[in-house]
């Protein structure tokens, strides 16, 4: 993220950025009551967050913000240190040094929290600018949600284990990974784990559901070992592919120059690389199969636990098997009915009618209503003239094949009573339709 790109973005977001009078007022230091400089503070705070979100960062450097982002011909905002200090006091910004160390134990994490509270009370606007890294807490939460969403797309279980390198690459770097894991650890949604066999293997266990992350088990360590091996094998495959391509290019160039001896040597390297790739790929496939078996076993375990819970609930509430079967049958019938409705809606033909055709049909209905056909109704049956008119108009409207999007088609039946009662039913009812 270079300063030139940031300045171009600022000019798009703030059209009057280059206005000298407005810029002079904005660049002044805060003075007076908070109500006097509150709008200016909101402007700078909003602009900082917009820039960081646009460029996909949530860790900012105060000197960079003041001297590069908002530098106008050598002039920098005198209020920016105060802006960052207020954001820090309000919890919208935190120092990376104040964050709980996610790779340490519980006692060390508690020490970090106490230290953070003590440091916050002694901070000043000038000391904020001396910090190397400040974290925008809102964007940190957004980044954590983004990482969890990305992991959920490739994992079907309620939690997953990834290597530390992969987690940090998803977060955007080592500092970013540290901040995101610290936030997830504080929410009890992430946990650090490590194992040391031939070398140190570090990983992160992340909860992909609303529940807190469970404790680390021996299966998690074995899974981490397999995932780490998978990544190492994939890296080795990439190296083999690059070397094979280099040997191929060299062999072709030597053949064109007539040096067949050296070209043959590169051809042998290509063959050796192909054999190594087959061996490496075979191992990679085997590791992926084992990981797939573990994932399927965890899914089966969750289904089994759900069945056991359901059976226990049925037993506690004294629900008979016949009642359960009846509920399942009703549910199946409901699903079938819904599918039939959806199928009918998908296959229903849509009829296009002009407005003139609709008006003509309504004229015919009005003439029908105004004629002497109302005498056929039997008053002794307890049905009034108005109700009979409603019924006859409703029956007539049912015979109309209006398209779903025809104007007034949804409200015609509701207004049928008004049509019958209105003696002069020409223009007003046509307008309502």
Automatic annotation (TrEMBL):
Coiled coil: 321-348
The keyword Coiled coil is assigned to this record: yes
GO biological process: late endosome to vacuole transport via multivesicular body sorting pathway; vesicle budding from membrane
Domain of life per record: Eukaryota
Organism lineage: Eukaryota, Viridiplantae, Streptophyta, Embryophyta, Tracheophyta
Pfam families, A to Z: Snf7, WHD_CHMP7_1st
GO CC terms, sorted: cytoplasmic side of plasma membrane; ESCRT III complex; multivesicular body
UniProt cross-references to InterPro entries, sorted A to Z: Snf7_fam
Record key words, sorted: Coiled coil
Protein name (record): Charged multivesicular body protein 7
Residue span of region Disordered: 410-433
Keyword Transmembrane helix attributed: no
């Amino acid at each position: 993220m270079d300063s030139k790109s940031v300045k171009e973005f600022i000019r798009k977001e703030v059209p009057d950025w280059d206005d000298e009078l407005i810029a002079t007022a904005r660049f002044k230091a805060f003075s007076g009551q908070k109500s006097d400089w509150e709008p200016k503070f909101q402007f700078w705070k909003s602009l900082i967050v917009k820039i960081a979100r646009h460029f996909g960062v949530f860790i900012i450097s105060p000197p960079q913000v003041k001297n590069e982002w908002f530098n106008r011909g050598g002039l920098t905002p005198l209020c920016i240190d105060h802006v960052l200090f207020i954001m820090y006091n309000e919890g919208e910004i935190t120092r990376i040094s104040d964050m709980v160390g996610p790779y340490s134990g519980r006692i060390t994490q508690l020490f970090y929290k106490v230290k953070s509270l003590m440091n916050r009370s002694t901070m000043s606007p000038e000391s904020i600018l001396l910090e190397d890294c400040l974290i925008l807490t809102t964007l940190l939460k957004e980044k954590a949600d983004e990482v969890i969403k990305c992991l959920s797309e490739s994992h079907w279980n309620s939690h997953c284990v990834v290597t530390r390198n992969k987690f940090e690459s998803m977060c955007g770097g080592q500092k970013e990974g540290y901040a995101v894991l610290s936030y997830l650890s504080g929410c009890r949604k992430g946990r650090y784990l490590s194992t040391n066999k031939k070398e140190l293997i570090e990983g992160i266990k992340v909860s992909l559901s609303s529940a807190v992350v469970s404790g680390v088990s021996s299966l998690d360590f074995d899974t981490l070992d397999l995932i780490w091996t998978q990544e190492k094998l994939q890296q080795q495959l990439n190296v083999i592919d690059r070397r094979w391509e280099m040997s191929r290019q060299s062999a072709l160039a030597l053949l064109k120059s007539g040096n067949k001896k050296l070209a043959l040597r590169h051809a042998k390297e290509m063959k050796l690389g192909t054999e190594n790739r087959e061996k490496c790929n075979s191992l990679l496939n085997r590791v992926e199969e084992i990981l797939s078996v573990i994932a399927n076993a965890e899914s089966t375990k969750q289904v089994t636990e759900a069945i056991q819970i359901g059976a226990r609930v049925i037993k506690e509430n004294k629900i008979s098997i016949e009642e359960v079967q009846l509920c399942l049958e009703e549910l199946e019938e409901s699903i079938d009915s819904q599918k039939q409705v959806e199928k009918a809606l998908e296959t229903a033909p849509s009829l296009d009618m002009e407005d003139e055709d609709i008006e003509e049909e309504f004229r015919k209905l009005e003439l029908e209503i105004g004629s002497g056909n109302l005498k056929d109704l039997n008053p002794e049956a307890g049905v009034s003239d108005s109700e009979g008119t409603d019924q006859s108009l409703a029956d007539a409207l049912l015979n109309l094949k209006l398209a779903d999007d025809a104007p007034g088609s949804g409200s015609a039946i509701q207004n049928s009573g008004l049509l019958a009662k209105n003696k002069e039913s020409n223009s007003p009812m046509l307008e309502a339709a």
